[in-house]
Automatic annotation (TrEMBL):
It comes from Alloiococcus otitis ATCC 51267. This is Aminopyrimidine aminohydrolase. The keyword Hydrolase applies. Catalyzes an amino-pyrimidine hydrolysis reaction at the C5' of the pyrimidine moiety of thiamine compounds, a reaction that is part of a thiamine salvage pathway. GO terms for biological process: thiamine biosynthetic process; thiamine diphosphate biosynthetic process.
Length: 222
């Protein structure tokens, strides 16, 4: 069993719940109201802008320049590619630039990105990679599981196709391999820190679906 196999086994319950969350099911069978998807897209655009920055922190932490270069490339390509797709979705959903620029992030989106920054500012390269890996891996699994789904409207098909695509699957495998490479040289104390970062991030992934599905808001706005 690889270290990442162990991480996935450790979080299997929340992993299964994420793959079968009503939000994901609603996208894949076409029953999700577009207003919920719109809310998700806005929050995910916010998230991905910070996700890309955290990749840059990871790149700066790497001693191996090849790893630095690869992470810097992912900061530019992976997050930017997802943002481009989301911006296409935003046009279809009639989301105005002002809505994106003036977005008040929902509590879970804010907390998740704060978790990533905490890993980036106080953790090692392994801790940062462990924190950003669940986002890659869960979406890749969703893409594979539901790649043959034919939901209407087409925006939902496009969303699934993004994560089923070769480029996203390959990028995910790169990050899984990097995590295993780092863990192979880490002490048990260090690996415990990786496990904790991964577990928390995975909880936030599940929370992100719930956030979008319930239109989560700050208590003071209710």
């Amino acid at each position: 069993m690889t270290f990442t196999d162990e991480l996935k086994e450790m979080t299997q319950d929340t992993w299964d719940r994420s793959l079968n969350h009503p939000f994901v099911r609603g996208v894949t069978d076409g029953s999700l109201p577009l207003e919920k998807f719109k809310f998700y897209i806005l929050q995910d655009i916010y998230y991905l802008k910070h996700y890309g920055k955290v990749h840059a922190f990871a790149a700066a932490h790497a001693d191996d320049f090849d790893v630095t270069a690869d992470l810097a490339q992912k900061a530019s390509e992976t997050a930017q590619s997802e943002l481009t797709v989301h911006q296409e979705h935003a046009e279809i959903l009639d989301i105005k630039k002002e809505e994106i620029d003036n977005l008040d992030p929902a509590p879970t989106a804010y907390a998740y990105t704060s978790h990533l920054y905490r890993a980036a500012l106080s953790g090692s390269l392994g801790e940062i990679v462990a924190a950003i890996l669940p986002c890659y891996w869960l979406y890749a699994d969703i893409g594979l599981r539901y790649q043959d789904a034919e939901p209407e409207p087409d925006i939902y098909k496009n969303w699934i196709a993004t994560y089923a695509s070769d480029w996203f699957q390959e990028s995910t495998q790169d990050m899984i391999q990097l995590m295993n490479d780092i863990a192979s040289q880490a002490s048990e104390v260090e690996k415990d820190k990786f496990r904790q970062q991964f577990k928390i991030a995975k909880e936030y992934e599940l929370g992100f679906w719930e956030m979008a599905y319930t239109f989560e808001d700050w208590i003071s706005n209710k």
